[in-house]
Design goal:
With 103 residues, the chain is mostly beta strands. The chain has a single domain, classed as Jelly Rolls (Sandwich). The protein has no helices and 8 strands. The chain has a 5-stranded antiparallel beta sheet with strand order 1-2-8-3-6, with no helix packed on it. It has a 3-stranded antiparallel beta sheet with strand order 5-4-7, with no helix packed on it. The chain is globular. The two termini are 24 Å apart. The relative contact order is 0.31.
């Protein structure tokens, strides 16, 4: 057994990306953030669909078309494959734990 909130370091200079399940057709990933945002290099443009939920903290996702969505604890959304997006803000006061399912 494991717990989604375990093994989170007290200091988080970099975002943590951890695969929980990784198969040929499905990947489940835990993302842990504290003030981090997407790299300045550009937009995420993923081959897979991504369903993401915020379990603690908050995050703001911006789509290439300018739409911004704030996700707080319990909020989730589905990002279609090749829908360009980026994370422009995460909580700097507390840890943000995301659960992302890529399919």
């Amino acid at each position: 057994m494991a717990n989604i909130f375990s093994n989170i370091p007290s200091e988080l200079p970099d975002e943590i990306f951890e695969d929980i399940i990784n198969t040929e057709k499905l990947r489940v990933e835990r993302i842990v953030s504290k003030g981090q945002t997407s790299p300045n290099a550009g937009w995420y443009d993923q081959r897979e669909n991504e369903w993401v939920i915020v379990l603690s903290g908050y995050g703001v996702i911006e789509y290439k078309n300018g739409v911004k969505v704030t996700l707080k604890q319990g909020d989730y959304l589905n990002i279609k494959a090749h829908e360009k997006h980026r994370v422009i803000e995460t909580s700097s006061d507390e840890i943000t734990v995301w659960l992302a399912i890529f399919y």
